[in-house]
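Private note to self, pasted from the team thread so I don't lose it. Backbone tokens:
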């Protein structure tokens, strides 16, 4: 019995000790992201505005309870993200001020997770498009928010969300890609 066990143990010991094993930790892997080619189309509807949006996005009416006409969701299915657009017809200066203040509050609600929030002024006087663009840095739920108005009767607010845990290091390439689409949408925005 000893004659059989001893050689087997020696073989197992030799097999366990042989070879060059590298026990250093492997780097974290990420999914490969294939970005579609940038191509745009006009959004034309019964709403009092038009804009250009990417062909790889899908625009649907907001179906949540309490949604109003011209509340839209621009879906980015391959990136699991949505740009929520909420249109309001302004009836008074008081209502306009409340909408602007709400946009500011909703953007700064992300300060708990954000490392910084920058405000940029949007101004296209030739088209009467004015507003504020909020860039929210860090692991906040929304990285881009904005509102556009003609300052008299039309107002639209946008907020970009991804349907995943907010981890900036993993969504940064997609966020950079989609932000260019949001920027182009704003630059092409017109009131009817």
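Design output:
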């Amino acid at each position: 019995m000893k004659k059989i066990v001893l050689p087997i143990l020696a073989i197992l010991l030799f097999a366990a000790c042989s070879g060059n094993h590298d026990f250093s930790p492997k780097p974290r892997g990420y999914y490969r992201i294939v970005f579609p080619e940038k191509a745009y189309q006009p959004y034309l509807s019964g709403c009092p505005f038009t804009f250009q949006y990417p062909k790889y996005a899908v625009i649907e009416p907001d179906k949540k309870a309490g949604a109003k006409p011209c509340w839209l969701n621009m879906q980015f299915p391959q990136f699991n993200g949505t740009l929520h657009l909420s249109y309001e017809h302004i009836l008074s200066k008081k209502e306009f001020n409340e909408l602007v203040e709400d946009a500011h509050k909703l953007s700064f609600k992300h300060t708990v997770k954000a490392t910084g929030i920058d405000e940029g002024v949007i101004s296209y006087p030739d088209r009467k498009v004015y507003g504020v663009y909020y860039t929210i840095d860090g692991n906040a739920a929304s990285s881009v928010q904005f509102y556009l108005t003609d300052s008299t009767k039309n107002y639209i607010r946008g907020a970009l969300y991804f349907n995943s845990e907010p981890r900036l290091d993993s969504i940064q390439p997609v966020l950079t890609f989609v932000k260019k689409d949001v920027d182009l949408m704003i630059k092409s925005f017109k009131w009817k």
